[in-house]
Write a structure and sequence with these properties.
Number of helices: 11
Number of strands: 11
CATH architecture of the domain at 9-139 and 203-233 and 259-316: Alpha-Beta Complex
Strand order of the largest sheet: 3-2-1-4-8
Shape: globular
CATH class of the domain at 9-139 and 203-233 and 259-316: Alpha Beta
Order of helices and strands: EHHEEHHEEEHHEEHHHEEHEH
Radius of gyration: 19 Å
CATH topology of the domain at 9-139 and 203-233 and 259-316: Spore Coat Polysaccharide Biosynthesis Protein SpsA, Chain A
Strand content: 15-25%
């Protein structure tokens, strides 16, 4: 019989309603007509668009992760007014940036992620969600934390040297985004040092330890400043989740498990046939898919979005 985990686990969701004209005006003020910031990998509108994914995210946590103690939603002066049986707290950027107000407002998710450990009353063990994540099957606590103080992350190990070489040539030929998540993972691995590999992470919920983040950033204030001083994404940033995982890997407290079987990712390009093949991965007999990422739904056609909505509502109905 599986032993019940006795420690608290919170969920943290970062959310922005890009349809809010006030927030749009604030962002435009700081962009100051800089066309280079319009790229999707930096500050394009798709980064801030909202089609109600957070309501799916919160409902899925309630249904499939009912053991979560509390859900924290981190926002910039907004409130999605979600319904939830699990207690929900709205945390404003001003709270987690207290003492660092000079870096606000920020429109940079990597900057916000670097400050999540400063959420008041956050549990030591927490799972970080982007608002476009969806849990689609009941999962136990040990999906993320096999035991107290240990993390199970979903991804795979990759060679630093080989990946750096590959991305060097991709940038040389113009086939790599100037600001990209793989480079940010490698940069975090380089900061930790002592390894020839890094954890190539996919778009799943990320289990984290508050104390690991706190110890690193409090003892390396220069690295914290590096990660929060740019209001928009830049090549200076590194991934805080990767940093935590590489630190725990050094201590023997990290378990890396393949993401392929448990994750379904969908970006709205291609037709309905492609979408149905993706959805079938979730519903077919013997499926191990636990997490879905519906990315950039602002770019989906009405027909595609309607089918996804139908699928999600059926999945989440009580």
């Amino acid at each position: 019989m599986k032993k019940e985990q006795m420690f608290d686990i919170d969920a943290v969701i970062t959310w922005v309603d890009g349809n809010d004209p006030g927030l749009g005006a604030k962002r435009a003020q700081y962009m100051q007509g800089n066309a280079s910031l319009q790229a999707d990998d930096i500050a394009g509108t798709t980064r801030y668009s909202d089609r109600g994914e957070i309501y799916w995210c919160v409902r899925s946590i309630n249904k499939f992760m009912p053991w979560v103690r509390r859900i924290f939603i981190v926002t910039d002066g907004q409130d999605p007014k979600v319904e939830s049986e699990i207690p929900v707290e709205i945390v404003d950027h001003k709270v987690i940036f207290r003492g660092y107000e000079q870096y606000l407002p920020t429109f940079n998710s990597l900057s916000i992620e670097a400050m999540l450990w400063r959420i008041p009353d956050l549990s030591e063990h927490f799972v970080y969600f982007n608002d476009d994540f969806l849990v689609c099957k009941s999962v136990d606590k040990d999906m993320f934390f096999p035991q107290e103080g240990y993390i199970k992350c979903h991804g795979h190990k990759a060679s630093l040297l080989w990946t750096k070489t590959r991305y060097f040539f991709k940038r040389l030929t113009g086939h790599a985004c100037r600001v990209n998540h793989v480079q940010q993972m490698m940069d975090a691995a380089d900061i930790v040092g002592g390894s020839s590999s890094f954890i190539r992470l996919s778009h799943t919920p990320y289990p984290l330890l508050k104390s690991t983040m706190q110890r690193f950033y409090e003892s390396h204030p220069d690295r914290l400043a590096q990660n929060i001083r740019n209001r928009f994404r830049s090549t200076e940033h590194f991934r805080s989740d990767e940093l935590v995982y590489m630190l725990l890997k050094k201590e023997g407290r990290l378990q890396v498990v393949p993401e392929r079987d448990v994750l379904m990712e969908y970006m709205p390009h291609g037709g309905m046939e492609r979408l149905e093949r993706k959805l079938h991965r979730v519903t077919c007999q013997g499926s191990h898919v636990c997490f879905i990422n519906f990315g950039s739904l602002d770019k989906a056609s009405d027909a595609i979005f309607s089918r996804i909505t139908q699928f999600v509502e059926e999945l989440l109905k009580q």
